[in-house]
Amino acid sequence: MRYPSSVFRHKTHLSFVVSGLTLAILLGLSGCSDKAAEQQTPAELAAQAKLVAEQQAALKQSAERHERAERQANRQRDAAIAMHEQASSAKLRTMSAESRAYIAQPAASISAAPALNGDWPGAVPPERNRFEKQVQNGIMVAGEIPVSTFAIDVDTGSYTTLRRMLKEGRLPQKDTLRVEEMLNYFSYDYQLPGKNDAPFSVTTELAPSPYNDDMMLLRIGLKGYEQSKAELGASNLVFLLDVSGSMASPDKLPLLQTALKMLTQQLDAQDKVSIVVYAGAAGVVLDGAAGNDTQTLNYALEQLSAGGSTNGAQGIQLAYQLAQKHFVEGGINRVILATDGDFNVGTTNLDELIDLVSIQKQQGIGLTTLGFGMGDYNDHLMEQLADKGNGQYAYIDSLNEARKVLVEQLSATLLTIAKEVKVQVEFNPALVAEYRLIGYENRALAREDFNNDKVDAGEIGAGHTVTALYELRYVDAGNLANDKLRYGYNPKTGNEKYSRDEIAFLKLRYQLPDATQSQLLSYPIRAEQRVKSLAQASDDFRFAAAVAGLGQLLNQSHYLHQFDYNKLSALTRSALGEDTSGYRHEFIQLVDTAAALAQTQRAPIKKSFDAGDRPFPPEDKLHQQ
User: Fold this and answer.
1) Which of 126, 279, 484, 528 is the most exposed place for a label (fewest CB within 10 A)?
2) Which has the minimum average pLDDT: 42-46, 227-231, 524-528?
3) Please, where are the H alpha helices in 308-404?
């Protein structure tokens, strides 16, 4: 009988153990006999030889039992694989000829891989994952730079990666959280746009800042119009799935398979689904199956297994080819990339990948990125690819998150209702001395980019909400971060140039999905809309301030002077609102966990515990003799 190599390795190892132990015993006996050979009787020597023989026999029996057990395990594994293959073949035979036609041939295009490992990998060292550091926005002087311009962002990946880290008992690295993605994870009760208005509404709110005394907090909120799946029209979806060896853990490929099954349950006959997998090489698993062919879709997903390296660039090219092949005029055409990490084979240059994604975007094919697991995860790559592909970046850490992104928010994930959306705020120097944009560091635009339709910006999906926060200080507040200028505008003269009723003027530009020219919206933000205390602000306002507060605390922002975890906890608990989905209550738990972890890092053991010359742990004097 032929045994697996692992059995031979084990058997050889055991033989070395037996021989080594025998040698040690014999040497020991020999040493004893050298020292006192004249004192040992023949009976004693015979007893020692018998002991050695018995020990050798016991070890040999143990090795044989281990070999038999391993052979039995191998037979059971082979039988399980054979049963799975037979079941898969039987399932394939029961499909209609039309359904089988969607399954790409040969079947080897699905990555042949080792069986999934049932052991959870646990927390991984944060340095193995790649999270880009952000340079925090500084405090701007309104009299010098009155205009702030940025592109919107609907990504949520930074919040869910943070949630996973906190549940694993670790804090993110300083300055790696994108606060805007934390803000935009949550929905807010913004007014829906009118039927004949722009595709999104605009809401502003002004109240005292919880972060610093004598400062105000301005909230700007956008809300896209809502559309059900039945109203979306035909979809052409290409799932680009990472099946490399690193995906073989429960929080990766198995979670991905279940998540996509949830998504496909929302599709119907007019939709088309293709599946491309990539590991050491890329291949087509499904070529344009009908969205309502649940049996075919589930079968194709169930056959996926993990193995090999990660040639993601080749997979992207193949996915776009299928998206072009099944292109739906006037419908949704989107590649959905799902992976746990980085591309380490083929085209790995970020600029080249972004150029490819940008070209396909111009041809009407968007890109959504879904992240899974940790270990060698490239958060920056996932965020940048989605940004350039007119899509959303989400990190899936649980089935609940998969349901949220791919079921509850499916329309927002798939349908773009406005593209190249830019925000520009002009602050009135007669009233506002200084301001600071919280988050959106890598979405900043030059002032002149606002009117340039060729400059790439952000997208809003159906039903999406987008939130931005500015912290600002009035001219008469005192305690300015910057010294007043000697030359330039004097607020005591020439007041006619500025309105005393407006603190700022808000402008937005956007393009409709099929348009190339932008449209302009503008709104004055009046001083009279401010409320006197933070408690008078809406629940949504206070909760958004709490979310941004956690992000700034974890980023170790040096702009928070009267804010800590205790104030954050009280602010969060005061702003839960209805919270029918429970996301805000979950946020409370994350705040408490972050506070506890931050506290442990403030008090190193070597400084807080001084045992002196005493033994540790202390000796129990009651049991001393």
Assistant:
1) 528
2) 42-46
3) 312-325, 350-362, 379-388, 399-403
